[in-house]
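>> Question from a student workshop board

For tomorrow's exercise we were told to take the sequence and the ligand below, predict the bound structure, and bring the output to class. My setup keeps failing. Could a helper post the expected result so I can at least see what it should look like? The ligand is 0O2.
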Amino acid sequence: MANAKGNIQEYIAAKTREIIRGRLASDKIRGFIKDNTRKVETMFTYYNCAMMEVETKFKVLNEELTLSHAHTPIETIKTRLKSMDSLMEKVDRYGIPLSVESIMENINDIAGIRIICSFKDDIYSLVDSFLSQDDVTLVEKKDYIANPKENGYRSLHLIVSVPIFLEKQKRDMKVEVQFRTIAMDFWASLEHKIKYKKDLPESINEKLVSELAMCAEISADLDEKMQDIRRQLTEAS
Ligand code: 0O2
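>> Workshop helper replied:
Here is what the output should look like for this input. Compare the format with yours to find the bug.
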């Protein structure tokens, strides 16, 4: 993440070359990126700062909980800025006006953090601690752990607003935080890899969707069992 600005500049330059070669279909998007290069770069930089703020908050919580509970709740923290392609696809899908202001107003997941925990209970206590911080404002919460998606997807999603402090201003920025156990992340990562294979015949696709849903149930059972083993060990010690 340290070199995110360089990456963004490289990305924009590569995109511009792609546009010149005519590989980006939409004239509207082509015009938008060309006319707003500096604004787009600034926008991504602000989101990168917000992502770093939130990442630090979880690193701090993990340190403190490790000390006080002798148990490290967070296994891994992953961060990502939404790619320009994915952003433009979403802007188009939701019919959002093509301006940096409107994108920042309407798209909530440009900065994304994924917190992978060992156990389901850890997720809920981390969410409570995080949301009780006085500079974190909850914008939206979707609990796909309590209410899994039809395909079996489980994860807890928060959209929060956090302040970033710049040279001459303070800005509130939105960040998406996804919480998963290792098992939920394992399932979601594999599902994400295979679900876009649209060239499969419908009969095979249906079978795979149903098998994936079954795997999600097995994976959720495993989470419950591991959680129970931990409970028993805690009670016994
Ligand atoms: P990426 O690459 O992770 O950014 P949206 O789908 O974004 O238009 P909404 O309401 O924002 O609508 O979506 P939601 O339900 O909050 O979930 C968005 C993100 O959750 C996705 O981001 C995925 O990361 C993850 N997700 C949601 N459903 C599934 C699923 O069924 N399988 C998997 N593997 N991941 C899921 P993006 O933007 O799709 O991708």
